[in-house]
Structure formats: C-alpha cells, structure tokens
Amino acid sequence: MLSVVYPQRMTSQPTAGAVLPDAAAAPDRTSPIDRAARSIAMSAGLTAITLRRMAATSGLPPATVASHEPSMGALAGRTFSDLAHEEIDDMAARLVGAASPLDALKTLVESLLGPAHDLSKTIWADAWSTGRHNDFVATAAREAMLAWQSLLVEILVAGAEAGQFSVNRPDLAAQQFFALIDSTTAYALVGYLDSDARSLLVTRSLEVALGLPEGTF
Known about the structure:
Blueprint (H helix, E strand, L loop, with lengths): L31 H13 L6 H8 L3 H7 L3 H25 L4 H13 L4 H13 L4 H27 L8 H20 L5 H16 L7
Helix pairs in contact: 1-2, 1-4, 2-3, 4-5, 4-6, 4-7, 5-7, 6-8, 7-8, 8-9
C-alpha cells in the first residue's frame, strides 16, 4: 500500500510581491461566495470570476462580495487551488488501497485520461493561461502541480523498489508525464489529434520511460 504525502496548498508567495490570503483565515468553502466562485470557474473559466458576476451568481450585493473578497484575483487563485487539491485528495484516497504500485499507476493514468477528468483538465488549461497575468493563480497552479508530481513520484519509487518499473529519475518521469497530460489537453481544446492518438502519446511515452511493455496502459 502507498503512504501518500504531498505539499500543502497555497503555501508559497506568488510572484510580483502579491500576498496570498492566510489559509487559516479563509472563508468557509460552503459559503455562497465560494460556491459561486466554483460555479463560475467550472462553467466560464477563472477569468470570469469578477465582482459583477460573483454578485449575480451568489445573489449577494456587490458591496457584500467585495467586503468578504476584496481581491477577485486572490479568489480565483484560491478557487483553483481548492478544486485542484480536492481532486488530488480524492486520487490519493483511491490509491491507498492499490494492490501494487503498477495497479496504482494504472488507476491514476486511466483516471487522468478518462472522460470524467475532462472538465478538470480544462480548468487546468485555464489556470496555466490565466496564471500569466494573475500571480495568485500562478502560485496555485505551481503548488498543485508539485502535489500531483509528488504523488506520482511516490508510486514510481515504490514500483522501482518492487522491481515493477525501471526508472532512474522518478522526478523527471513524473514531470514528463504531467507535461504530456497538459500538452494533450491543449491539443484537445483545438481539436488536434483524436482522443485515442492523444492518449497513446501519453501512455506509450510513460511505458518507455518506465521500461514497461507496450500496451501496459
């Protein structure tokens, strides 16, 4: 069984001197404001989290929203962080019961390439783009990616120790895997390659990186 450890969310400071809200002082994630931010992020994207839209979606007066969330940029960053880490938490819980590192890896790969993950991948693509102009989102994306990579590295190390994988640099293999996940997500958004071709690009590259036979995934 795997003992999953990964970085805490939203711990480092964003670039350009912006300051993230204190996580301990963050509002209740079930509040109307947070529910509205999540709804907007998943339906229209992180850049759509504006004061006007937040007020319309939450049903609260703009002044009330602004008093609780003076920075829409910070709210967008926290919203993405929460959504991303919830998915990581869910995956980590699923992997704890895996019979072997290879089984855990198959579960992770199948989940990330499956249709149920499409919305999450779209939000990730949105975060990478939005993060160019929003330091809070950039910080959240970096930290969530480190968490995903840490989760995969643990699987790869355990698999190498068990003789299931042949990999000298688990960290590099994990970075390569998620780079392919992100790039094929971008391909999907513009209709480049079909779904099977995009999945094969990811799975065959991972098989080669780990010394696994073709068709393992």
